[in-house]
Amino acid sequence: MIKLNNVNKTYFTDKIETIALHNISLEVETGEFVSIMGPSGCGKSTLLNIIGLLDKPNEGSITLEQENVEQYKEKQLAKIRNEKIGFIFQGFHLIPELRVIDNVELPLLYRKISSKKRRELALEALEKVGLSARSHHFPSQLSGGQQQRVAIARAITGKPSLLLADEPTGNLDSHMGDEIMQILEDLNKNENTTIIMVTHDDDEAKRTDRLIRVFDGQLIH
């Protein structure tokens, strides 16, 4: 699904050079559920952003589904992100003025499909996360766990082959966190969705197929 080869990422300011990732080589197979762990500031989110084509490395190559993408222009990358990659963040990033169904439909607005088809796909995604009955509610009318489920529905409404989750249970209590993990596990097993998840929770990491540890911008084997 995804292959990184000798990826380096450095951030520059006027006076400071910060090495975020150093010589990262990593492969994730189609259908894997992988967790990434490491201390704060070690490069986990940077790694996820590069895998998700939100950021570009200074050096190294990135292959997504056997497609070499590091030289692609932003318009090409945006198309790949919209069609192949779903993003779930610790903050739900829902638009408060929009109903649940409209929030979930958002990624589909950039595709050439009818409004009827967009609505069908959004309702299907909400059904998968158990929130079809809340489709006409606003985010403020939902609990934190429900808002995160809406965020997951939004991420999967376009049927991405790769799902990236950056601490998706970080703002939730243990019960709600377990519900979110169950949804991710179901997507992985039933839809064969490849999932890469950043987490600080050892128990959550144990529920995934493989654990990748990052320390000071490097993979720890």
Describe this structure in words.
The strands form 2 sheets. Strands 6-7-8-3-9-10 form a 6-stranded mixed sheet, with helices on both faces. The chain is globular and about 50 Å long. The protein is built from 7 helices and 10 strands. It has one domain: P-loop containing nucleotide triphosphate hydrolases (Rossmann fold), CATH 3.40.50.300. 40% of the residues are buried. The protein is α/β, with parallel strands linked by helices and 221 residues long.
Shape: globular
User: Topology as H/E string?
Assistant: EEEHEEHEHHHEHEHEE
Mean pLDDT: 89
Please give the count of helices.
Answer: 7
Q: Total domains, how many?
A: 1
Strand order of the largest sheet: 6-7-8-3-9-10
Output the structural class: alpha/beta
Terminal-residue CA separation? 21 Å
CATH C-level: Alpha Beta
Structure characteristics:
34% helix; Rossmann fold; six-stranded mixed beta sheet; alpha/beta; 221 residues; 10 strands; four-stranded antiparallel beta sheet
In short:
The chain has seven helices and ten strands.
Helix-strand blueprint:
Elements: E1 2-12, E2 17-28, E3 33-37, H1 44-51, E4 59-64, E5 67-68, H2 74-84, E6 85-89, H3 100-105, H4 115-128, H5 144-156, E7 162-166, H6 174-191, E8 194-198, H7 202-206, E9 210-215, E10 218-220
Parallel strand pairs: 3-8, 3-9, 6-7, 7-8
Antiparallel strand pairs: 1-2, 1-4, 4-5, 9-10
Helix pairs in contact: 4-5, 5-6
